[in-house]
Amino acid sequence: MPHSEEALRVIPLPAHVRRDSMVGAEVTLPHAMRHLDPESLSDKDRKTLRDGLFDNGVVVIRNQQGLDPALMPRLAQLFDATAGHIHSGGDKVVTDKRNILAQNNGSRVPRAPQVTVIGKGKWLGYEGIPELDMKHVSQTTFHANPLSKNDLDAGFTRPYRWHMDAPLYERLPGFVTSLHSIKNPTLPDQKLHFPSGEVLDIPAGGTAFYSGARAFQLLSDDEKEFALNTTVQYAPRAYEWILNCKATDDGLTIASSGAEKSFDDLPGWTWDKVHAFPMVWRNAGNGEPHLQVLGCCVYALHTKDPVTGKVTVMSDLEEVRKTCHKLTSKVYKPQTLYVHRWQEGDLVIFHNRGVVHSITGELTKPSTDDDPEKRLLWQCSMLSGTFPEAYRP
Ligand SMILES: [Fe+2]
């Protein structure tokens, strides 16, 4: 066996798939390794995988059917020595109905309680879970101007909500999220329509990503200066706060204001546990700047004058949302998006502090036994002990 096949390799996806996104690579495991096993990798292989993830944002390992779900929580340590032992969403994030993240009706894998089950359709006895009846969330329920019946009949979809996997309260977001595909829809491609008039074919139920590094590069010099000096204050209990809000067509922010819950109606919270993060994060691998904003959850922007040190606070919610949208929408173009075309068995690891992602796809028909929309994935994002580091030029 040639030596090169004994080592783990990270190979960027073909240029026609990556296009101008800076996202996507395939990992081939060392020859004797059937399932990714981080503890059995050599130091050199661990470094190759780590660097490959930080440089490419999203990496995929194919044919991981039969993977032990307990691997997924352990994986976080490879990229973050301060990763904790609980899911960054805590114990109840997918089952607490006060929370917009519970709308999928997902569950947790009983033998690996840090692993969330997400998807669409009915499953009886899956992994010992008596009954799963999962609903695929889509723009039909979350967008201010949902697609018309004609658009839906023509196969259009939209990004649901662009985000990082970040609770924005108490627990710090993980460096990585892992996703493992168990079952994919067997449907024709769907389509995204962009403000430019362009149309992009995407796989039904594909997970969309953009690189925060590419998003930063696309800013003007003045916008870069603003972003580098700005801290994003997120709302208290942001996912409860926006429960009744509606998104812009691209899913990058909330379309208007006024539908937020009153702070008094949110589950108990204190300001010291609500997160405020830099707008531009430093990549823990290659040191590059990444524009990392959860535009649906923003509350205020605090911008420091680099000369005088004076801080200006933007607190008008519509202005805050419009400002974030202006910055993040520059990357919302067909050539700078990567939409993962799931194959069953894929293990995808993504740099949660370096890319922004969204669910896509219209999988909204009533569930049946032979439902072509049926979809099931495992998801794991472990909390970190490290605060996101601001990029300093
Ligand atoms: Fe997510």
From TrEMBL:
Keywords: Dioxygenase, Iron, Metal-binding, Oxidoreductase
Record-level Gene Ontology MF annotations: dioxygenase activity; metal ion binding
Cofactor annotation: Fe(2+)
Matching SUPFAM superfamilies: Clavaminate synthase-like
UniProt keyword Nucleotide-binding present: no
Transmembrane segments: none
Listed InterPro entries: TauD-like_sf, TauD/TfdA-like, TfdA_dioxygenase
TauD/TfdA-like domain span: 37-380
Keyword Iron tagged: yes
Family affiliation: Belongs to the TfdA dioxygenase family.
Name under which the protein is recorded: Alpha-ketoglutarate dependent xanthine dioxygenase
Source organism per UniProt: Ophiostoma piceae (strain UAMH 11346) (Sap stain fungus)
